[in-house]
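Hi R.,

As promised, here are both runs. First protein below:
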Amino acid sequence: MILYGILFILGALFIIPFLWIILTSFKPESQIVALPPRWLPHPVTLENYTRALIRVPFLIYAKNTFIVAIFSTIGVLLSSSLVAYSLSRLNWPDRDLLFYIVVGTLMIPGQVMMIPVFVLFKNLGMVNTLYPLIIPAFFGNAFFIFLLRQFFLTLPQDLFDAARIDGASELRCFATIAMPLSKPALLTVIIFACLGAWNDFMGPLIYLSSEEMKTLALGLQSLKFQYNTEWGLLMAASSLMTVPVIIAFFFAQRYFIEGITLTGMKH
């Protein structure tokens, strides 16, 4: 009972701000700023959602965010899984040394790379496009490489040896053995990568300037200045932004937890 009580309290601390956003999105403007604060909206209104879809280019923001999230997730999944497979199942000189170097890059602050990467994309003429938010994903991610490598190491070596004896190439072993058996880990990578791209604010802030190229995270931030922080509108747009993430995690939570639990375990 003590354990469940602690978990209930911690869960409430995390969910109360989200409930406040949802409830505020259904309140009239007069109730949002009322003192003392009122939890339940009365009457319930959908005006804030209507304004979020009409007054603000929400659909344009959502389209750009979906494009970035989908293609960057595909890039991370392809590049990180290939690198992780080579670092776990192929024997070549200094393989472990390179793995330690890859993991060591996790200690490099992202701020160190911002200016050089920006200058690179500026010289390529890609500023104010979605390319700077997508292309880096196709060059791997150190955390996901580490995650997938640890999972690939748990797969039985006999399966790969049998496939090689039958004449299978390494790419075929990767595609027909490693990938199908690593669905929990791959789904974990997909969830992390998609959430990272969906909620990314710094990247769009650096590279995007025009209204038609903004993503949801950047577009919602601009509401605080453009419309003098209309809280009902901001809360409604924030609620719409979180709905796809909640739905995706609700259906994938079992695989997500399984992938985190099994990663790094030896069979």
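And here is the second one, sequence first, then its structure tokens:
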Amino acid sequence: MGILLEGKWIDDEKDRFHGKKGEFKRPDSPVRHWVTADGSAGPTGEGGFKAEPGRYHLYVAINCPWAHRAIIYRQLKKLENVISISYVRPVRGDEGWIFDNSSESHKDHLFGKTHLHEVYTMSHPDYTGRVSVPMLWDKQTNQMVNNESSEIIRMLNTEFNEFTNDVTDYYPEHLRSEIDEVNELTYRHINNGVYKAGYAMTQEAYEAEIGPMFETLDRLDEMLGKQRYLAGDHVTEADWRLFPTLIRFDAAYVGAFKCNIRMIQDYKHLSGYLRELYQMPGIADTIDIQAYKDGYYYKNPFRNPLGIVPLGPELDFDIPHGRDGI
């Protein structure tokens, strides 16, 4: 896994993302400014980024679950004509995320760059860290605003309400403590848990993650047998943070990341919940199962040295979800 080191792309020969026991350690996203309705500073970073139509651009990957959060929020909040978007190719190259500028669907619409890291260094010439998606770009000042998915979706949730007729709040104040608690649980053991299992470099590190992951899935299945959504009767941020991992689980994580004790389709309530979210208006348009498999099963010397992409499993998210009585 390569990184930028003081603005230069290098292979990660020092293996900065693993601990002494082979455990995967996800680094923090370093660029943390906020777009706000009035341009004032947000919880982190500097101010000056005012919400305006046409000013901001999202860089995403269709196969990345962290980017999927932002794609979903842009769709849910009807911001397609407010915030423009570019998709990198789902299969990374030797220098990370790449564009195909001969293709309208995977080109860099702003600069025509070949690699996403080239866009990063346009903003931060001495950038050090992972070149990740989603990344929010300010076209007015030509700089990166933020590359932390959890913060980007909070901005999309409320700060652009002046420019959309959908002002649904997925992080309502009266549910924030409950949402935060669920988010912490699902991030630790599921969203990031699948990566800690899949990127583990030792048997010990792998097994340390698999047990808590499936204990958490069991717990969520039980919870969803008693309530419609993770924070009660209404869809919230907690659901849209979990969904991208669940929709990829059976197609990618079960095989590519060895998360194979059970599949999501084995869970009565979780599988129905997953189908219900999938069937909500516009959500299916954000999903590409084949791209997920292509992205996670790409040729990799550690996880998939031959680069063979499996044909299965057969998945049908359109069958009735059975959640109406809960």
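A quick note on the second one: The chain has two domains: 3-163, 173-287. Let me know what you think.

Best,
J.
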